[in-house]
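User: Predict the structure for this protein chain, please.
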Amino acid sequence: MTTRPPNADRRETLFQQLAVAKTVLSQAVNLIDNHLQADDQLSVHSQYMPGSTIGKHLRHARDHFTLLLDCIAKPPPYVLSYDIRIRNTPMETSLSGARSALLETIKQLEEVVPRANLDEPLTLHAITPHMHEFQSTFGRELWFASLHCVHHWSMVRVIAGEMLITADQGIKLHEDFGFAPSTLVYQGENASSVESQAS
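Assistant: Here is the predicted structure, written as structure tokens:
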């Protein structure tokens, strides 16, 4: 039996995480291309989450990827802070602006991630509200950015559902939009279990 060298496994993990990141960002592109119809839908305020809009969630979730990628593109030592905010950007109010920004980040992922080291150490600065410092890695933060994105997509799903496109129906998104990968795996295993019991 031949064994794969450890670094080959890490490279595979790196490319798997790249695929996950691209998938969650592509879900937002799909939302813009196939579900939202007007710029003003990006700035409709949620009645359940005051001050919350689809545009703000798209911008905030994308920012985490951009901040991480910009950090790792600089010379070491790598210091990352997600507390930097770039508010009131065109992607919060313009469908074309949002689409362009998301596609730009997907392109940046494709350029930066394959050349990165999954286990590259970095220092994370966080206001909790106290200023704290944590040691992390590029791979861990790439996964966090994807999971953070899914968390915000779940709120986008709620806001989209509030927008009435007919007399009694909001915007319906794909069934996996805004669900964590672990939830989808569980649901898939659960459905398979039910099907096998029924047969």
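Strands lie at 79-81, 121-127, 131-137.
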